[in-house]
Target: Alkylation response protein AidB-like acyl-CoA dehydrogenase
Amino acid sequence: MKLEAARLLTYRAARLEQAGQPSGVAATTAKCLTSEWAVESADFGIQVLGGYGYAEEFDMQRYWRDARLYRIGPISNEMARNYVGESLGLPRSF
Ligand SMILES: Cc1cc2nc3c(=O)[nH]c(=O)nc-3n(C[C@H](O)[C@H](O)[C@H](O)COP(=O)(O)OP(=O)(O)OC[C@H]3O[C@@H](n4cnc5c(N)ncnc54)[C@H](O)[C@@H]3O)c2cc1C
Model:
């Protein structure tokens, strides 16, 4: 369900961009939620595989680390939330 939701958010942002409409909030929302769902999914994958999920000999721990990066870059999800919050009329928090 999260994979499908992530796709829909991403396609929505791409469609707005392609149509020449403002896409920043949609793209930031997609980046923020998709990165968090990717980490959750990889974390669940580690849990499913148990010790093998954590072991360096297997790929699942790397999937978690690779996904974890996108909560920090290219912008952190805290800054993403600041940006989306501002678009809703909330005061700038930094
Ligand atoms: C792979 C990668 C690609 C990147 N690509 C780009 C890029 O293309 N362009 C670019 O400009 N930068 C890029 N960055 C930099 C990225 O934007 C910063 O790493 C990120 O904003 C966190 O800043 P920092 O690392 O200096 O940590 P800090 O600023 O020290 O932040 C540490 C923590 O505090 C939080 N934080 C900081 N300030 C606030 C605030 N005002 N409100 C709430 N929380 C806050 C951060 O979210 C983070 O969790 C990239 C980083 C990585 C790792």
